[in-house]
């Protein structure tokens, strides 16, 4: 590939990355807002349930849900900042390697979602128990919902973001050779 072709490919790819980063930041911001809305709603719900029942189980379940929402909201806040404020002025190879990381389906920084989900699971399980439902049913429902979400996310990644990541990886390999 000639220097001109390389520059053209890099310019197109950078433009595509900027567009996708902006779109992803918007999506993550919307998800984050969803969680920030639910935190005060569940604070009020938990306070009412606990004041009515005086049951420690209602308090534990509500606090677990609130903390789960909080952890996930803060994680998505970090994601938003990472996608909204990408530094495209970095050296080309460094910028491309960071983009490769941003567009892989599972990332180390996503590990904070796990404690948030576990706390949400605890909260929902306590809620289901309070309503007289089975713990097994709550686990099947929650894990099924999480699995469904992961599968949908991977399908979207495969068709929308994997091609972009593959192009970035090709360019990184070309630069490194």
SSE layout and pairings?
Layout: H1 3-53, H2 56-84, H3 92-102, H4 113-130, H5 135-176
Helix pairs in contact: 1-2, 1-5, 2-4, 3-5, 4-5
Largest sheet: none
Question: What is the string of helix and strand elements?
Answer: HHHHH
SS-derived structural category? mainly alpha
How many domains? Answer: 1
Instruction: Compute the CA-based radius of gyration.
Output: 21 Å
The overall average pLDDT, rounded, is 91
The fraction of residues assigned to DSSP E strands is under 5%
Shape: elongated
Tell me the total number of β-strands. Answer: 0
The count of helical stretches stands at: 5
Helix share of residues? over 70%
Q: Give the low-confidence spans.
A: none
Euclidean distance between termini CA atoms: 12 Å
Structural commentary:
The chain is an all-alpha fold. The protein has 5 helices and no strands. Helix 1 packs antiparallel against helix 2 (56-84), helix 1 runs antiparallel to helix 5 (135-176) and helix 2 (56-84) packs antiparallel against helix 4 (113-130). The chain is elongated.
What's the short version?
This protein is mainly α and 177 residues long. It has helices at 3-53, 56-84, 92-102, 113-130, 135-176.
């Amino acid at each position: 590939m000639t220097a001109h072709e390389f520059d053209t490919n890099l310019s197109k790819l950078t433009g595509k990355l900027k567009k996708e980063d902006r779109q992803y930041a918007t999506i993550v911001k919307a998800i984050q807002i969803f969680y920030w809305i639910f935190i005060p709603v569940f604070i009020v719900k938990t306070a009412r349930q606990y004041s009515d029942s005086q049951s420690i189980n209602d308090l534990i379940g509500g606090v677990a849900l609130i903390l789960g929402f909080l952890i996930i909201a803060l994680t998505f806040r970090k994601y938003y900042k990472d996608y909204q404020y990408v530094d495209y002025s970095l050296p080309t190879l460094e910028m491309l390697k960071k983009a490769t990381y941003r567009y892989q389906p599972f990332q180390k920084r996503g590990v904070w979602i796990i404690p948030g989900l576990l706390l949400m699971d605890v909260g929902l399980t306590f809620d289901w128990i309070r309503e007289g439902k089975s713990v097994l049913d709550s686990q099947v429902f929650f894990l099924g919902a999480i699995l469904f979400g992961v599968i949908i996310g991977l399908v979207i990644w495969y068709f929308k973001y994997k091609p972009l990541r593959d192009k970035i990886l090709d360019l990184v390999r070309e630069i490194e050779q």
